[in-house]
User: Fold these one by one.
Assistant:
Number 1:
Amino acid sequence: MGGRVLILCTGNSCRSQMAEGLWRQLGGKAWEVYSAGSNPAGYVHPRAIEVMREIGLDISRQESKSLDRFRDEPFDLVITVCDRARESCPVFPGARETLHWPFPDPAHATGSETEVLAAFRTVRDQIAKTIRDYLAAHEA
């Protein structure tokens, strides 16, 4: 299996950016991977970049972008990774499958730097497991 996947979040700065990088790595060349936001922040969160580097993935060149850019494009799979994006997500009639995978927003984590980074790592690892499980279940 493979195809085009669009991962949506509100700000397109943390969860969807990490998911884009992880899906690109885990799905390989079989997938075209994009992420976008319903209200893009305009940057990729520095802590998301940091925790992805810890596992050997560089997402520093990814961009925060609006889902408007993708409205008229066909996708095999559209995934929302936060509840707000799901509520404001337009219908993608060309999508073969639409999924909702809500993850907590690590950008709202509080505490020491160590605790905040731990929150980012936890979400990163939850996203990676969910993508791995999906890909394993949908291999041809």
Number 2:
Amino acid sequence: MIKINMEHVDKRAAYGLLTSSVVPRPIALVTTISEDGIVNIAPFSYFNVVTASPARLSIVIGKKMGSLKDTARNVFNNRKFVVHVVTESNLVDANMSAAKLPSNQSELSVTDFTVEHSDTFEVPHLKDNPLYFECVLDQYVSFEDSDMIIGKVSNMYVLEQLLIDGKVDVKALNPIGRLSGNSYAKLGDFITLKRPE
């Protein structure tokens, strides 16, 4: 067994070790809107459920040279964002949305995504996405190199055919997980174990 003292590992090496160890990670594809009305789309794999009641999700967004990225700045400015699940059908465009673009250019210009608004939420969602959450900023934690955003879910939207007995049919959803480097994972074989009483 090799001991790695993480306090003495540089940022790049730590990133490689962590992102190749904590796998697969779900991917949040987040839409926000800037003060100038520009739609921003970006993927984040530091993403998870925080609480169920009330429903909360967390996303960690790295800083760019010590400054907020567009997604974090937009969330802090208008407190609203939409989280979509990355699936096999939208992976290519989700990956393209990670392109480094200037703040005044929307990722809509480099992807095939289109957006639409719900009746009650100012931030648009991705049209034809099978599952998404409309979120309002609840809390955030600022770290040296990133910001953790915790959003309270106002509304969840899911295709009716994906719901079975009050749960999402994960196989039909076809979510994609993030591995390390340029690698992603599809769902593999399922293992079912009953929890002990």
Number 3:
Amino acid sequence: MGITFGTLTATPLGEISFYAGDNGLKRVAFIPLDVLKKKDGIQETRPSLSGLGTIGILLTELNEYLFGIRKNFSTKINWESMGAFQRKVLSLTAEIPYGQVRTYGELAKELGKPGASRAVGRALGSNPMPIVIPCHRVIGADGGLRGYTDGIQTKAFLLSLEGHVVESGKVTKVLEHQ
């Protein structure tokens, strides 16, 4: 199986790199592509034609999202590399609508594991596809941002992009939807 790579270099968040294989998007990272390949130990040189289609869609959708045009991603996701619990957490997270937030505890309850908010946080902390699987939409019960793969400032930017007011590391006003 081959892998196809892509990168966006001029974004408000800096360089964003990603790759996809025959079964969909595998990774998104806020680092240069050469660093991502080295970090993930990728030596594959054969491109994936279906991965190329996935990367083309993601390039368009990610640009549109970062410019406030797109609210949902249709990019095919490869769920195979995740454990069962992480897949459940990230699947639920992928369903959180644009401009809305959930708490770690709310996700744990939705999973039928009300005491598992820390486990939910760990699963989100190793989300291989931030932005596309919108783990930035999950916050602490007190509105605190807690953590994010590229830092709290990136999480704050993404939440602000979606219409929330973020002050001193907390969501102080959640966007109201009709």
Number 4:
Amino acid sequence: MPLEGQKIRLREVRESDLPLLLALRNDLETQGWSQTLPTDYTLNMVRKQYEEETFSFQRNRARFVIETIDSEEVVGNMTYYSLRSRHEVTIGIAIARQFWSAGLAYDAQETLLRFLFEELGVRVVRLWTTGSNEKAIALAERSGFQVSARLREAVFRRGQLADNVMMDLLREEYYASHPEMEDHLPPL
């Protein structure tokens, strides 16, 4: 069942989405956190990953395609992984460049956060990016994430060393920034 935000829908990945997922994976601007170089993923590699995820019953990870509600245009993908039930999870997002600054990434991020806190009951959501990825940091901060760890000079990007930054958002911080919602889980 898809998750709907104001502008976007998070839905399952389909075979027809694979070329966009490949393009996002091989674009250093949309995958700037990655240390997997060169960017030489092939369609067969992406297809294999898709098939493994499609036929997996693991509930500790999920991949969604981000599509616009109005035109159903696919604009990116969003994942969660390393889910430790009712405790923590890590998220990732990639949006095609032509859709940057349209509010779609923020809506997708907020939609997934609502699902993770409300439906899965996690206590903390984490993400990783590079210290030089100002757009990703600003997007995370807009939802209330804070820098919680910094691995200095851990990533080589654009011919320079950059910090690898972990950011997180605690459950109580999420609900404090969403007064229209009520946390139904008791504190630990």
